[in-house]
Every structure is written in C-alpha cells, then in structure tokens.
Amino acid sequence: MKINPDKCVACGNCTYVCPMGAIYIDPVIKRATINRDECVECYACYNGLSVEHMNPSLVRTVRKILQLGRVRFDPEPDVCPTAAFEPDELQWPRVIRRAFSDPRATHESTGVQGRGTEEVKTNDVTHRVKEGEVGFTIEFGRPGVGVWLRDIQKMTWALAKAGVAFEKKNPFTLLMTDVTTGTLREDVLNEKVMSAIVEIKVGVERTEEIIQLVHRVEKEVNTVVSLGVGTRCDEHGDENVVAPILKRLGYKIERAKTNMGLGKITNPVEVKGTGQKIELVKEG
Amino acid sequence: MTNTLHRYGSAESFDDDYIVFATPSNGKNDVDSIPKLKKFLEMALPFKPVNIGDPVHGGALRPSRELQTSANWKRDFTPDFRAVIDGINEPASVVAIFDNQLAAEQFLKVAAEADLGLSVNMSASVEGAEECFKFAGITRHSVGYSLGFEGATEKLPNTQILTLSTMCGHGMISSSLAKKMVDWVKEGRRTPEEAVTYMTRFCSCGVFNPVRAKRVLEEARKKME
Predict the structure, then answer these.
(1) Does A23 touch chain B (CB under 8 A)?
(2) Do B56 and A221 touch (CB under 8 A)?
(3) Contact flag B111-A262 (C-beta cutoff 8 Å)
(4) What DSSP character marks residue A132?
(5) CA dist., res. A77 & res. A75, Å (int)
(6) A23, A54, A228, B135: least CB-packed within 10 angstroms?
C-alpha cells in the first residue's frame, strides 16, 4: 500500500485505523506515511476508510487557516478526504503479507478467504478431524499484534520434532519446504503478516502434550498466540473427552464454535475414466 | 472462521452475541451453493439479525468509495441487509449475528429444517450454543474450543478495547480506532451509536456485533478499565 503525497492532506484519520500502527504523519514532509517494514498489506486503510474526492490544495488551505486559530475541524473519523491510498503491485515475497493479512484476498493455495483454512467448520463434510483425534489451530499474531514468519518457524520446528502432521490444506503448511522438519521457505522468513494459523492433528491422547509444547515454545515467539482445539462429537452430539482434559489443565472454556452437522456432499462426482459426472448426495 | 472463535470476553459477556454461519466446502458442496447462501441469509432476516455479511463484500454497513462532503454533518447510518444478500456472488461463508438467544435458536431450527446441505456453525458461549442446538433438535457434529490468548499478552490493549477490536477476528478494527471511539464517546464528541457504525464499516465480513459494541462503549464511557 502507498499513500499518494500529492493527495494526502495529513488529516491523521488513517493513523488510527492501521491495525499494525504503521501509519504516521511524517513531520518533515507533513504527509501520512507508511512504515513499510511494519505494514502487513492488510488493506484495512484502503478497504475500510470511506473516501471523499476533495481538492487536496483546498483542504490543506482550510486546515491551515483553522490551525492558525487553534480551531480543529471535527470530521468523520473513518474517511480519507482525498482518496490518497493507492494499492501497490505486490511482488514475491511481499505478496505473502497480503495473502495472510487481507481477509478479502483468497489464498490461491486453498481457495479459501480469510486465514485460508476451513478447520472444523466444514468437518461434517471433510472429516478432517475424526473421532479420537484433536485438531489444533495455533494462531500467531492475533489479535492486532502481527507476527514475523521467522518466529512461527520456531513453533513448526518444535511441532515437527514432536512428530505431528501439519494439515495439508492449510496455506501456512504450503510455505514449508520440508513438512517433516517444519522448515519454511527461506525467502518468506522476513515477511510480517497480520496472523497465520499452524494447523495440526493428533490423537486425543496427545492433547496435553501438545498444549504443553505450545506453552513452552510460545515464550520464544515475540507475539500473541490464540489456541483453538477442535474435536469430533460422539453419535449423541456429546463431547466428553477433550473438554475434561482442558478443564484439568486449568482452562475456563468461555467460547466455542459448534458444527451442527448439517453439511452434505452435493458436488457432482466424476465417474472414473468416463468423464461423466453424477450427483451424489451424501450425508456428512 | 476462527475470526469469530477468539472473541474476547467471559461466557456471560456473550449473552448478546450469537453468530450463525453457513459455509460451502471447496470440492464438497460449493457447486451451485450461491442460491443456498442467499436463502440462508433470507431465512435469517425475520429473526432480526443485528448484522449479516460475507467475507468477500462485507457486512450490512459498508464504507463508501464516493462519500459526499455533506456526510460530515449528515450521514446515513442505516445498515443495508438487502445489499448483502443481493451481492453474494461467490461460494464463501455467510454469517448472521443475533443479539439474543431466542432469535438465534429459532433461526437455527429453521436453517436445519431447510436442509440446504451447507455446513452450519454457531459461534457463541459453550452453554449458549448448547441450548440453541438442543432447542433446534440438532445432534452436533464437531466442536472447536477457544483457549484464549497466550504468549506475549503484554502487547494487548485493555479488556474493553480488546472486546471491541476482537469482534472483527480478521483484525480489521484496530485497537487504536477502538480506543479513539471510547475516548470520543467519553468526551461526548460522538454518541455510542455513531462510534459503533464507524467500527462496523471496517469489519470486512459482517461478524461485528454493533449491539454488543454499543454496550461496551456505554460501560467504558462511565468507567474505562
């Protein structure tokens, strides 16, 4: 993202809306400026601010006159008055920032918006997490802190060493050059993103071990970690396996996401070798 | 949609926060899912959701690319639910937010009876969701628990700001903006209703709950934590 200095009037509205706090009024040029190292290309400024198309020279003159009298105009706080934000054409590896930060950017690797993973919310049709298994979503940088990918690698190394399998249909897994070691591509390590989810699946008996491992390694990672634990319910819709473990570990579970099991496989299925597609409605 | 899972707050603080969403899965049921996604939100409307949305276009209150200068004095704060439904043109999650359990559980029942074949999830307090799916006669399939925030939590803002900013789990509502809105409400520069609409417009998928946000702003006006 960039701010057109010919248009910017240094109103300061955008300095508050940047989730990474990376926009500031440069005291020398007197224009809003983006700290490119800290910017994660989330587009909150470009997509979130409403836009007026006022004449920049006129706005600057009015602002100067008001400032002389120590009067401050009280404009709407979610508006860029001169449409000064202009998206950059992002190149590799910087494009990674946007893929993991702008919820409207679809991850090309998985075809999913947001964080690029469906986790247990489609478990009724994907069967990602089966009975007796636990799916972990270990999210870095959220809320509102951000994370350097090199920091996440400390966790993926530790998880790989513990012998866990990374979810294949997760965009972060696809940044790894070696899933057996959890090693990321060298050229993305110095990229910062809003947040990224490492997704793994283990047998339920390893729940406590993984939580302890995350606790241990997160101390070496200079950001916030949001931990989610997903599991399959039994045939009665009860879940009496993982919740007791979490409670024993001292967690007070305030919030959960419940998959209601209403999904069905309805996409036409190709009959092998014939090219013919048939409808196959299958209960999740 | 882990962006709804990790909202900050105690279970009691989610009494006015029930999120119901329908998700097509790539390669499983995404073909011809757009009419179903529209129908899902159509069915939600009679139960008076406080917001609806999709991750491609946003929620019921959106920023404008052509704002008139007069908006600085007179601005339209009316959410446009119809625009959300009409605008769905990709197979992606759609979401309806309710500020009370009664509406959420009744909608869930209707959604189950409609048998759209999409995955339907509820993000709420554990107990709140349980009461809803029991009311709707649903045997749930899976559950994802939030264990909250860990690690360098010293980087996080105070609890009221966190409550506001985490209502957009994609992180599009910055803690600086949330703090500014609390300050403006305290100073009397804007009403809580106005402050809520500014934040709502930044949420890119419509999961922001304006009713809960207004409550938090009212509380923060009298006592900032």
Answers:
(1) no
(2) no
(3) yes
(4) T
(5) 6
(6) B135
